Amino acid sequence: MIRIAHLTSVHPQNDNRILYKECTTLAHAGYDVTLIVAGGENQVVNKVRIVGYPKPAYGRLKRILKTSLIDMIQVCQEVNADIYHFHDPELIFAGLYLKWLGKTVIYDVHENNPAAILSKPYIRSAVQKKVLSKVFDWFEKLTAKFFDAIVTARPDISRRFMPHKPVTLRNFPILPNLSSLRNIALTKEKPSVIYVGGMTEIRGIYPLLDAFAQLDQYELWLLGPIKEEYLRTRIHQGVPNVRYLGEVEAYEVFGYINLADAGIITFLPLPNHLQTLATKPFEYMACGKPMIMSNFEYWKETFGESSLYVDPADPSDIRHTVQLLMEDAPLRERMSRRNKKLSEEVYNWEQESRQLLALYQMLLKESRD
């Protein structure tokens, strides 16, 4: 049996794309799949064997040198897979070493990393951000040619790697069976709009809170990790008309979305956001929910009439658009039908996963020839 190892030193072991989509798809297709995770716990999930190893609680340099290189390589050699599929730019050097050993290696690029560097809060200087962004853009493109395949999460990332014929594997959801979703222990007090995902300043959470603080007839539900201490304090102290629901496993998210009346995502217009294909809109669509999104041109072109669009930095625009959507039942119904249909026919993991399986089949055929 072909042995496959997926590697991450940054993501959690229950990462939706890595574990529940890619690894589970490959395991169910008959491959022997191991997920190697820094900070993970040894267990088996969906036929995927998870192998964890210690991760330091702090120290960016220590994480890159030890966790993402020395320790990762050691575990990879113990697993001894035929194909290694890594998911973090921190693992590029480990990937190069595995390639030097004669292994088949795939680099899975989740983000436009040079653009993401421009938004890193821990890099204070704008000049440093620009220099680091350009250097990493050069480095990532240079090293990409040594790997057997490049997989990306969205088309704009694929365009960066066109000479290497990347496979675009979009983060479409695994469609839920809405009729069999587990009942959520949540009392719905008034019409609600849900935001799902990590909460940070650059993801537009503060204008969103300000908008709902003056929307007494509606409620904003927040589901996901709070990644900034000031934001955590503000939310836990209480914001009018806002309810924080905590964090849940990926497969539990749909129960909350299904109970809400609409979904919202208002990322701020930063370089790595303008052409991103965030996962959450597709999860909202899978539950047949109308949506409100940032008014990025790429999002307007992609989602069209599936959503209404707002200036994500303007609480009054968000507030007005929420009122417009929630007061117009025929509009919500049209959007709901459209989104459910698109999700069932196009925007789902079952369709998208065929490209992943085809890639592995091609790589295995090439290795035999």
Walk me through the structure:
The chain has helices at residues 16-28, 60-79, 92-100, 113-117, 126-144, 155-160, 205-212, 229-237, 253-259, 279-286, 297-303, 315-327, 329-345, 349-368; strands at 3-8, 32-38, 43-45, 48-53, 83-86, 104-109, 149-152, 167-168, 192-196, 219-223, 242-244, 262-265, 291-294, 307-310. It has an 8-stranded mixed β-sheet with strand order 3-4-2-1-5-6-7-8, sandwiched between helices. It has a 6-stranded parallel β-sheet with strand order 11-10-9-12-13-14, sandwiched between helices. The longest helix is centred in the first third of the chain and has 20 residues, at 60-79. It has 2 domains: 3-172 and 349-368, Glycogen Phosphorylase B (Rossmann fold); 178-345, Rossmann fold. With 369 residues, the protein is an alpha/beta fold. The chain is globular. The chain has 14 helices and 14 strands.
Brief descriptors of the model:
about 375 residues, alpha/beta, Rossmann fold, eight-stranded mixed β-sheet, six-stranded parallel β-sheet, 14 helices
Helix-strand layout with pairing:
Blueprint: E1 3-8, H1 16-28, E2 32-38, E3 43-45, E4 48-53, H2 60-79, E5 83-86, H3 92-100, E6 104-109, H4 113-117, H5 126-144, E7 149-152, H6 155-160, E8 167-168, E9 192-196, H7 205-212, E10 219-223, H8 229-237, E11 242-244, H9 253-259, E12 262-265, H10 279-286, E13 291-294, H11 297-303, E14 307-310, H12 315-327, H13 329-345, H14 349-368
Parallel strand pairs: 1-2, 1-5, 2-4, 5-6, 6-7, 7-8, 9-10, 9-12, 10-11, 12-13, 13-14
Antiparallel strand pairs: 3-4
